[in-house]
């Protein structure tokens, strides 16, 4: 089993329900065990600001799936929950990203691990630090990386939790 961290986000439709359904599908998959979820955070859109705010979280899991198999599962869940890929960084019902997969470093056209913009995004680092406050990433300690983020990254803890 390998420990992996996933980023989850939604800014279309019933965001909470979509994220709940995605977590349920992850938990029900035979190759995935022991999902642990951070709090929900409401965040300003990244890359394309002319859209609704996102709900984001990070989930820690144990998996027997390879990175590419896990990616396939995530894409199937996205599709099942209405994800349509049209505009880069555009609105979406669901976005599932592999942030980290054990100690693996992967650089393929469809999969980069660690996620290439992991350390630039408060909506990833804040919930990741909630799950693992002493984590050390290739770029440094997670708490130090959080301190480097600029104030322009709007993020607020959401009142509801998925648990």
Automatic annotation (TrEMBL):
MF term (GO), any: kinase activity
UniProt enzyme class: transferase
Pfam families (UniProt xref): HPPK
Entry-linked PROSITE patterns: HPPK, PROKAR_LIPOPROTEIN
Keywords: ATP-binding, Folate biosynthesis, Kinase, Nucleotide-binding, Transferase
Every 7,8-dihydro-6-hydroxymethylpterin-pyrophosphokinase domain range: 88-99
Top-level taxon in the UniProt lineage: Bacteria
UniProt-listed Enzyme Commission number(s): 2.7.6.3
InterPro entries in the cross-refs: Hppk, Hppk_sf
Pathway assigned to this chain's UniProt record: Cofactor biosynthesis; tetrahydrofolate biosynthesis; 2-amino-4-hydroxy-6-hydroxymethyl-7,8-dihydropteridine diphosphate from 7,8-dihydroneopterin triphosphate: step 4/4
GO biological process, one term: folic acid biosynthetic process
Catalyzed chemical reaction(s): 6-hydroxymethyl-7,8-dihydropterin + ATP = (7,8-dihydropterin-6-yl)methyl diphosphate + AMP + H(+)
Matches recorded under NCBIfam families: folK
Name the UniProt record assigns to this protein: 2-amino-4-hydroxy-6-hydroxymethyldihydropteridine diphosphokinase
Organism of this sequence: Desulforamulus aeronauticus DSM 10349
């Amino acid at each position: 089993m390998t420990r992996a961290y996933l980023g989850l986000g939604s800014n279309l439709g019933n965001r909470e329900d979509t994220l709940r359904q995605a977590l349920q599908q992850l938990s029900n998959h035979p190759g995935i065990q022991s999902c642990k979820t951070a709090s929900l955070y409401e965040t300003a859109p990244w890359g394309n600001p002319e859209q609704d705010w996102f709900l984001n979280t990070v989930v820690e899991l144990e998996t027997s799936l390879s990175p590419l198999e896990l990616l396939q599962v995530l894409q199937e869940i996205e599709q099942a929950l209405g994800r349509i890929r049209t505009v880069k960084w555009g609105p979406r019902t669901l976005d599932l990203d592999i942030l980290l997969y054990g100690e693996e470093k992967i650089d393929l056209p469809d999969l980069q691990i660690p996620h290439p913009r992991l350390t630039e995004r408060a909506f990833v680092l804040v919930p990741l630090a909630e799950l693992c406050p002493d984590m050390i990433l290739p770029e440094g300690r997670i708490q130090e990386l959080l301190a480097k983020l600029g104030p322009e990254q709007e993020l607020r803890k959401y009142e509801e939790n998925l648990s």
